[in-house]
Design a protein that fits this description.
DNA polymerase, domain 1, 5-stranded mixed sheet, alpha+beta, 2 domains, 7 helices
Length: about 180
């Protein structure tokens, strides 16, 4: 049996039980946020939340997680309103972007367990590799996300991919009441 829950949806994969979770997510569910990096669990590009733990999905078989709850970057928040996603954008963390979904998932799990982590806690929890070396921005973003999650700061959700902030403001009048209506 390979039944578990992915992003709050029950799934049953009809694949070899020894299939790595990464490939079930990417190939069978079209959830491509978790990236294939090294295939050995070293880089963390494929990190997902499994039952509240940040795990490398390339090293976990679908048989091992029977009955588990899996959250991928796609399930963290549909509108990028999660505190970590907001802080990531506010701190301009991404450079090449390859490691970002794994980093965000590891940071989200860290903040669920420890809502006010020290720099040492962040360094211990964030074992993912960033090829671009954005570690200082990552640490800043995690501290920023902790403030957002604690209610100490509020950032409006980023618009979905492919939509400019100006276009997003026009579609949500409550966010921008001063935007004039299109005269057409």
């Amino acid at each position: 049996m390979t039944r578990f829950t992915v992003n709050n949806q029950p799934v049953h994969y009809r694949m070899d039980p020894e299939t790595p979770l990464l490939w079930a997510l990417r190939d069978a569910s079209n959830l491509t946020g978790a990236k294939y990096g090294c295939g050995r669990g070293d880089c963390g590009a494929c990190t997902v939340d499994i039952d509240g733990e940040a795990r490398r999905s390339c090293r976990v078989t679908i048989a091992e997680i029977e009955g588990s709850f899996v959250t991928t970057i796609e399930g963290l928040s549909r509108d990028r309103s999660h505190a970590v996603q907001q802080a990531w954008a506010a701190e301009n963390v991404p450079q090449c972007g390859f490691c970002q979904s794994g980093m965000i998932m590891a940071a989200a799990v860290l903040l669920e367990k420890n809502p006010n982590p020290t720099d040492a806690d962040i360094d211990t929890a964030m074992t993912n590799i960033c090829r671009c070396g954005t570690y200082p921005r990552i640490r800043r973003a995690i501290r920023h996300a902790a403030r957002i999650a604690a209610g100490g700061e509020n950032i409006a959700a980023a618009p979905p991919p492919g939509i400019t902030p100006a276009d997003a403001a026009r579609t949500v009048p409550a966010l921008s009441p001063a935007v004039p209506k299109d005269p057409r």
